[in-house]
Please model this.
Amino acid sequence: MIIVTDKILEKEIKETILKSQGGKEATPSPRIIFYTAGNETPQKNAPYQQSNLSQQLSAVINGCKSENVIFASPNITYNVITDVMLNYAEKPYKFNVLKSLYEKIVGQVRASSKIGELCVVNLLKENLPVTSRWVKRFMDIFFSCIMGILFLPVLVIVPILIKLTSKGPVIYIQMRAGLNGKPFKLYKFRTMVLDADKLLGNYVDINQLKEPVYKFKNDKRVTPLGRILRRTSIDELPQIFNVLKGDISLVGPRPEDVKIVKRYNALFKERLLIKPGVTGLQQINCRGNTSMAERIKYDKQYMENQSLWLNLKILAKTVKVVLSCDGAW
Model:
């Protein structure tokens, strides 16, 4: 277990851990990483120097070779936590934050658990009441299965058409930022030419973007079949498997490319507080809109009002939006 804390809380944390173990030191004992406000040198026994704080903290965590990470420093921000989580794509880290710290940096805690005597919030689960979380998960699985059955012919025919009309894999896989920034593999039918990602630099320099978002109305990398798949939103169908895996929900903020999310400011990162979705308020109200300010407005509105009824209304409106093809490029 790795605990990111500061010198002030070190004694309290250690005493709490010892209490949970009956006063005996565990083997192996928890590894402590010290983090203080403005400190560019988180320490694990000895200083570790690196220019970028999140990369540096990630490197120290990797050096501990443990799977369970608990953020406990009162000086750490949600911005730093998400930056750290964005660096772990394929690693089985279990990220938690002290309940008291979560209340300070995010807000109300609706679901918590215990690791020994430490009361924590699991950052890999949505901060929803347990009942609400299970109802939402049931809805995700139920409707995804229905969609899989209804669109089974499409799921069979489209891969054949992709193979016949262009070179490359049938499924396009891209790393997207999930809940609290944890990366995952998003699945879509490939709609672009092979090596499209390498050609992106010919169209946009991500480092020069005014806002961390981009979309091209006439992208020359898109294949003729790809234009049809995008126009009809059929390219999104493989995300059914992402929903069944639990990477995303049917309803939530749109998951974005990890490279783009790493450029988010603290305000934009608030959209990471809930699990991303295939559709959402943003997708049905400003589809095709490239303004990040407009997107975050709808995402925050959903975060503050999410409910089973709202999810059902969004799913119903999504059908109308998809059929209209409005804003689909």
Notes: The chain has two domains: 2-122, 130-324.
